[in-house]
Amino acid sequence: MIEAYLIHLLILVGIYSVLAVSLNLALGNTGLMNMGHIAFFGIGAYTSVIFTKDLGVPFFAAFLIAGLLTSVFGFILVYATRKLRGDYLALATLGFSFVIYSLMLNWSSVTRGPLGIPGISKPCFFGLCIANNLQYLIFVLIISAISIAIMYIIVNSSFGKLLAATRDDDIGLRALGKNTFMLKSKALMISAFFAGIAGSLFAHYITYIDPSSFMLSEVILIFTIVIVGGIASIKGSIVSTFLIILIPELLRFLNIPSSVLGPARQIIYALILLVIVLWRPKGLFGKIDLE
């Protein structure tokens, strides 16, 4: 029993690691305060499910389509907010998250609205179908490792250095003739792509999705992971995912009513975030200050 529970937690850690590192690519490495990242997660989940369940598209094709379509939404978001900075950008991207949530909730002919989409199949590819959670854990770990490795290469490439320069001195970089809008567009599209495939992994693991899986509380969770781990730190995001996902799970071993358990988890996230912001503004492994 405990083994199955640990496998479940490790699957979630793998999925949320990709989601957190992809957010850090935009937030920490490019300076884009994207509060709409959970919307990308939801777009990827719904896209993958609709293509596989309703249109009969093979899983891997739907998996890639989920990432690509989400990256298109990333470009739309960065284009719509190209003149905004700081708090205004954060509010605009948060509004984007609410818009996507409203679409999930009200576009019933496609998303089934608040009823959600049940009976989502486990991935099948190359004639093989994932039959149990241990196999899904191996699959998630492989996809997570590849995704994080790609993002690590991007961050440490010359393109990644330009993203960091955009974050540190946008005006100065433009004065040198660099197109910072295109840099931000590419960064957010890459970030959205990996959030989309994380959403696909999540949907096909849980086998049921509805709009409540992509609400504001999830935005708080992802930002807590990134801030606790450290801005612009891939290692920090991975370590923090383990901490933030696993620590609240200890509550399950206490005699706490289920009606209290959910709010208690949110309180723990908020307390951890508050302590880190006050004690270590850079997070556990952060490279820059949170401003």
How would you characterize the overall build of this protein?
The longest helix has 27 residues, at 180-206. Helix 1 crosses helix 10 (216-229), helix 2 runs antiparallel to helix 3 (59-80) and helix 10 (216-229) runs parallel beside helix 12 (258-279). It is built from twelve helices and two strands, in the order αααααββααααααα. It is mainly α and 291 residues long. The mean pLDDT is 89. A two-stranded antiparallel sheet has the order 1-2. The chain has one domain (2-215). 71% of the residues lie in helices and 1% in strands.
What percent of residues adopt helix (DSSP H or I)? Answer: over 70%
Shape: globular
How far is the first residue's CA from the last residue's CA? 44 Å
**Strand arrangement in the largest pleated sheet:** 1-2
Number of E-state strands: 2
- What quaternary form is this? single chain
Q: Given the structure, what is the number of helices?
A: 12
DSSP strand content: under 5%
Q: Write the element-wise H/E pattern from the N-terminal end onward.
A: HHHHHEEHHHHHHH
Major beta-sheet overview: 2 strands, antiparallel
Mean pLDDT: 89
Structural domain tally? 1
Q: In angstroms, what is the radius of gyration?
A: 19 Å
Protein structure class: mainly alpha
Note poorly predicted spans.
none
